[in-house]
Amino acid sequence: RSGHVAIVGRPNVGKSTLLNRMVGQKLSITSDRPQTTRHRIAGIVTRPDAQLVFIDSPGYQTRSGGALNRVLNRTAVQVAEDADVVVLVCDARGWTPADERIAKLLPADRPVLLAINKVDAVPEKARLIELVNKATACRAFDEVVPISAKTGRQVPLLLDLCAARL
Ligand code: GDP
Ligand code: MG
After folding, report:
1. Residues of 101-123 as b/e, b for ≥16 C-beta within 10 angstroms?
2. Cα(68)–Cα(121) distance, integer angstroms
3. Atom 17 in ligand 1: residue holding the nearest Cα
4. Does domain 2-164 have CATH number 3.30.870.10?
5. CA distance linking residue 13 with residue 66, whole number of Å
6. What is the structure's pLDDT at 28?
7. Neighbours of 138 (CB within 10 A)
8. Tell me: the pLDDT tens digits for 22-72?
9. How far is the CA of 32 from the centre of ligand 1 (A)?
10. DSSP strand E in 17-84: where?
11. What is the protein's quaternary organization (predicted)?
C-alpha cells in the first residue's frame, strides 16, 4: 500500500516535531505521484507493509499578514484534499476555536485521525477526556490517538493507524 498523509493543525501544535519523529531520517525515495502546487512532500516512511508519503502545504511557510488565519485554514483544507489520510494535530493542553474551525473544514470523504499531541505536558486524564469530548462533538474522527511527538510516545501506533487507512 502507498498513499499520501496530510499533517494539518493550527500553528505550534507540534506538526513539524511529529513529522521529524515519524520520518526519522531523510530518504531518497520519491513518490510515484506528482506533487501538486498545493502540497509538497515533507517526508516518506517506507515499511514492509506500506509507503507513507507525508505532505504539507508550501503555504504554511509563508506569512501573509492580516488574513493569516484564513490562509492557514484554506491551505490546511487544500493539503487535506490532496491526501488519502488526514492527521489533525491538536495540543493536549486545550481544544481551541482555531482547532474547531480547521476540524470542521476538513473533507468528510476521507479518513481523518485526531492526534492529541503533547500528552507529556498533561498528566491529568480527566483533561484529556474533556478535550476528546469537545473535539468529537464538532466532527467525527476515524481514530483518536494521544501522542507525544517530543518523547515519541504512541507515534508508532499513529503510523500503524495511518498505514491501515491507506
Ligand atoms: P508546528 O507549528 O505545529 O509545526 O509546531 P512545532 O513542531 O514547531 O512545535 C511547537 C512547539 O511545541 C515547539 O516548542 C516544540 O518543541 C513543542 N512540542 C512539539 N511536540 C511536543 C510534545 O509532544 N510535547 C511537548 N511538551 N512539546 C512539544
Ligand atoms: Mg511547523
Report:
1. bbbeebeeeebbbbbbbbbeebe
2. 28
3. 14
4. no
5. 21
6. 47
7. 13
8. 987 555 455 566 666 677 888 899 999 999 999 887 655 445 555 667 777
9. 30
10. 40-46, 51-56
11. Monomer.
Q: How far is the CA of 84 from the centre of ligand 2 (A)?
A: 21
Residue owning the nearest CA to atom 18 of ligand 1: 14
Nine-digit cell at 165?
487507512
Cell 500553528 belongs to residue: 11
Which residue ranges make up each domain of the chain? 2-164
Which ligand is the nearest neighbour of the Cα of 89? 1
The answer to whether the annotation marks 26 as part of a ligand binding site is no
**Mean pLDDT score of the chain:** 87
Residues 2-20 have pLDDT tens digits of 999 999 999 899 998 999 8
Return the SS3 of 6: strand
Give the predicted TM-score (pTM) of the model: 0.91
CA dist., res. 62 & res. 73, Å (int): 13
> For the residues 129-144, what does the mean pLDDT come to?
97
- The percentage of residues in the chain with a pLDDT greater than 70, rounded to a whole number, is 85
C-alpha cell at 81: 484534499
